[in-house]
Design goal:
alpha/beta, Rossmann fold, 7-stranded parallel sheet, 9 helices, globular, KR_dom, Sc_DH/Rdtase_CS, oxidoreductase activity
Length: 246
């Protein structure tokens, strides 16, 4: 039976790869993101698209109304929207404290607030039983990200997911987090990764290669399957052994 799947950040990278996997299995997929033209070009067969700023409550309300009209019930909700706040426009002026406030605010808006608002807007639409909520975290949540802001914004998803898992468990809904390591072929770095850095990231793995969007997408697909029905409140690391569960 076809499921209704909502994927934020579905136009590129991991979100797009996940959309392709679910669509290939016969599920109905809705791609959500800030850039409508990117969603349209994603090329996922049969997928619906909806452009929205998920950090804006009014935009999320509009999306929730669209989901209600088109799907009614959401079987799988995947939060792939977010990214490197360092790629966003810098704050005007030269005050260091203003720059810090901006960096932390941007990262939490992109990576935490977007996921929270969308989840809260769709919580009553989640299939009960059988619903799946899946968050994308990062290896940075375990080891930092240099500035701390991006890592902290991803780590904040972990306790939120644990709380949701307890709350939604009686409804037969599972909530899990996938934390990828270095994944090639995404927009996270804003362009090609410098070769020395790429080689260092690959060398940290036990597998001797970068991750791919498909690696993460397949993990998300399994967590959304009936076979993972008793897996909840977990953080699944997909990093080739670069971080060993500490």
């Amino acid at each position: 039976m076809a499921r209704n799947v909502v994927i934020s950040g579905g136009g590129t990278g991991i979100g797009r790869a996940a959309a392709e996997v679910f669509a290939a299995g016969g599920d109905r997929v809705l791609l959500v993101g800030r850039r409508g033209e990117v969603l349209e070009k994603a090329g996922v067969p049969g997928a619906l698209t909806y452009a929205a700023d998920l950090s804006d409550a009014e935009s999320v309300r509009g999306l929730a109304a669209f989901v209600t009209a088109e799907f009614g019930t959401v079987d799988v909700l995947i939060h792939s929207a977010g990214g490197n706040g360092g790629l966003e426009p810098a704050v005007d002026g030269g005050d260091p404290l203003d720059a810090v406030a901006h960096a932390w605010g941007v990262n939490f808006r992109l990576n935490t607030l977007t996921a929270v608002l969308l989840t809260e807007a769709l919580r009553e639409r989640l299939a009960s039983p059988g619903g799946r909520v899946l968050f994308l975290s990062s290896i940075a949540a375990y080891r930092g990200s240099g500035s701390g802001a991006y890592a902290a914004s991803k780590a904040a998803l972990h306790p939120y997911a644990f709380d949701l898992a307890r709350e939604f468990g009686p409804r037969g809904i599972t909530v899990n987090v996938v934390a990828p390591g270095y994944v090639a072929d995404t927009e996270f770095f804003g362009g090609p990764v410098e070769e020395t850095r790429r080689a260092r990231l690959v060398a940290e793995t036990s597998m001797g290669r970068a991750g791919t969007p498909a690696d993460v997408a397949d993990t998300l697909h399994w967590l959304a399957s009936p076979g993972a029905g008793h897996v909840t409140a977990q953080i699944v690391q997909v990093n080739g052994g670069a971080e060993r569960g500490h």
